[in-house]
Amino acid sequence: MAAVTGSRLCKFVISSLDCFQFKITMWSDSQIALCWISNKKKLPPFVANRVNEIHDLVPTATWMYCPTQDNPGGLVTRGISFDSLRDSRLWQYGPTWLTRKSQWPKWEHSEIFHLQAEEEPVEEPRKVDSVLPHQHDLCSIMDIDRYSTLQRLLRVSAYALRFIHNCKQSNPSLRCTGQLLPNDIDAAFNAWVHCAQRVSFPEESLALQTTNKTSRPPLIRQLKLFLDTDYIIRCGGRIHDAKIDSETKFPCLLPKKHPLTALVVHHTHKIHLHTGVNATVTSLRQKLWIPSARKIVRSLLRKCVTCRRVSGKSYSRPEPPPLPSVRTKQSRLFEVTGVDFTGALHIKTMDGSSKVYVCLCTCGVSRAVHLEIVTDLSVETFLQALLRFAARRSLPRIMLSDNASTYEAAADELGHLINSDRMGESLCALGIQWRFIPKRAPWYGGFWERLIGLTKTTLRKVLGKALVTLPVLQTVIVEVEAVLNVRPLTYVSADLRDPEPLTPSHLLCGRRVISLPHTIMDDEISDPTYGVPSVRETVKRQSQLIQHFQSRWSKEYLTSLREYHKTSGKTKQEIQVGDVVIIHDDTLRTTWKLAVVEKLITGLDGITRAAEIRTANGRTNRPITRLFPLEVKEDESSKEVQQVQPPEADVNTENTMLQDRPTREATVAACKRLKQWANIVRAPPGGCRRLN
After folding, report:
1. Counting C-beta atoms within 10 Å of the first and last residue's C-beta, which end of the chain has fewer, N or C?
2. Hey, CA dihedral for 500, 502, 503, 508, is it positive or negative?
3. How far apart are CA 542 and CA 536, in angstroms?
């Protein structure tokens, strides 16, 4: 590598100074590198590539040996103090003999090596001609890629071999007819194994046929390969005397990149009831030996549809999206409202007990809460609750809710409520726009689901197992609403001088509703400066308070939302239109429904978090974390099973990459300075040039 780096630097200096007619002398203290550079024999690929690059960079250079103690580069590589390096004459001026050619050191092995500019003829690769006995070449008459299972491939191949055998028999009694026998299947498998070995291991096949054992490929020595009576390559080992089958002691060698290997792995995996990687590899090694078997089996089992249906993972969860604009933009209270129902609550009646529900409406901006009790989940009851909410708070412009499928017992009734035609007509008449989150994705409505949980927790703590009447429950619900509206939205400081924390009640009423208002004292009434404020002044003061709290909301609450930074999810998108998936459900996984992805629902940040799918019952939508793909993408599946011819070795690959590399600014500046310096050197006497 030092010689390569020096050659590159020399080439750079020569091209920058435009002085190709100068004689070049290269020095190295590595005798091994000098032998490699002057050697004409075949070298390892790593060394040969770098030697060829040196020949291309400095073809006319003279390479000479420099003793290690006289090499200035050794001072830095071996380590030296700053003071010693500063005072070192070897580092500043080089060896003392460098300017005296008569004192140049001589190497005992070879004094000087001259690199020739002309290129040596490249030897053509030797063609491997197999001298094995004639075998029926099934690869030329059958396309193995058209068969999805090993059993189908072997049966068709067995019939083809039988047809060839019968065509050669003139005596009809010697022809084979009837059903296929196990021997026919074994013969077809051996024929395919022979084809795969001949294509993937041509050098090993030729070496095993010759008696010369000195120059054999390393795979033969590593696996102790040999040819059996059927001219199939088998692996040796150290278990010759073991009392096991001969096929287990000497398994057949299968290439890891042949389609036959993929069919064999899938067949073994299937007949052993879709076992894991270890069990599949153990079963394969009873008769076959595949290099890097565990890696190949693991990559192929990822594409097993049966295994992915039972134990496959869903699409990866993407990163959390930014908050929607309707939640971060200041607007009037309850302009953007999220609505949801709690579970059933039991109350005491004259006839025993009955069920009621709590309808929760929360503001998406101020996080204020409004609770209404409804006796059932009908359209009329919900519309009455919505009218009461609009009369007491304000008429919302946007209503957000789930798809009424988050409950089990009331799923049908809630679905009928949301999808009712009368419901849609009533909302349009009121000027309300209703938006739905994707189905089975309650985290999309997190800002109201959180308050639903707080409401349930508070009711559970207050009521416990008590069975109360409807008036009592209404009173408790109103108290719970008041408590939730005074929960702090900003940081609660321990300093008494700091203002009290901001709450939704401040944005609603201008104060905490559970606190007593300011009372008038007797001394204030007797004070001559005290007077009853007018209605206009009261309204003005109330408006100023609301504006003050809204300003605090923008400065304190909105900026505090940035404090929660949780890095989770992935930005890489795996889902695509047309993917076959199974839909997550609360039932057994084997009963999950199949679906096809028809459309991706992408957010403003360009990341897909939900998709529209088509099932046997119609179209719906789901978050991608509820979809489990059955197909394997090209980037997920391993490409090792594909039959790809290895590219021819290019000794000039690194040199080509070096030429195609974009030029850096520092390199351009260095070239400019070197050319200016060269112009100064070549300037006639009396001339003067100035460096910029």
Report:
1. C
2. positive
3. 10
